[in-house]
Amino acid sequence: MIGVDVNPAKVEVLNTGRSPVLEAGLSELVAKGYKACRLHATTDATVAVCESEISFVCVGTPNLRNGKPDLRSVERVCQEIGQALRRKEDFHLVVLRSTVLPGTTERLVIPTLQAASGKRTGSQFTVCVKVEILLPRSIP
């Protein structure tokens, strides 16, 4: 597994076998994955995409003042993955795991990936969504 983060400090921590996040049981899992040479991180999305078969888009989508999710990070990551896909010959799966409203995949994710990669979804890559639960009061 290859993690990608824009923060070099978090990448460095992960690449020494420690978790950059405090969560019960996570430190042990990270250490185990690191010792087994199955977990490392980079700040270079192209390296991660080219050396993997699946990319998970897991970024924050905080609410804007109007209550809608801020999708700038989702769009930025999709652009980075798309640019990497431009260099990759093998088929790739992109999984959207960030909390987004229905329709975001069709309106933002797929068009962004296609534009950045120059490839078409369905034949050279595909996209799926791991649905996150939205509380009723958080839906605009």
How is this fold's topology laid out?
Layout: E1 2-4, H1 8-14, H2 26-35, E2 40-42, H3 45-50, E3 54-57, H4 72-87, E4 92-96, H5 104-117, E5 125-129
Parallel strand pairs: 1-2, 3-4, 4-5
Describe this structure in words.
The protein has 140 residues and is of the alpha/beta class. The chain is built from 5 helices and 5 strands, in the order βααβαβαβαβ. It has helices at residues 8-14, 26-35, 45-50, 72-87, 104-117; strands spanning 2-4, 40-42, 54-57, 92-96, 125-129. Helix 4 (72-87) packs parallel to helix 5. It is globular and about 40 Å long.
Number of domains: 2
**Lateral arrangement of strands in the main beta sheet:** 3-4-5
Rounded Rg: 16 Å
CATH architecture of the largest domain: 3-Layer(aba) Sandwich
Q: Residue-averaged pLDDT, rounded? A: 91
Helix and strand sequence: EHHEHEHEHE
CATH superfamily of the largest domain: NAD(P)-binding Rossmann-like Domain
How much helix, percentage-wise, in residues?
25-40%
Strand fraction band?
Answer: 5-15%
Number of strands: 5
Low-confidence stretches: none
User: How is the CATH topology of the largest domain named?
Assistant: Rossmann fold
Per DSSP, the total helix count is: 5
- The structural class is alpha/beta
Outline: globular
End-to-end C-alpha gap: 35 Å
Query: Main sheet, how many strands, which sense, barrel?
Result: 3 strands, parallel
Label this structure with key terms.
140 residues, three-stranded parallel β-sheet, 38% helix, 2 domains, two-stranded parallel sheet, Rossmann fold
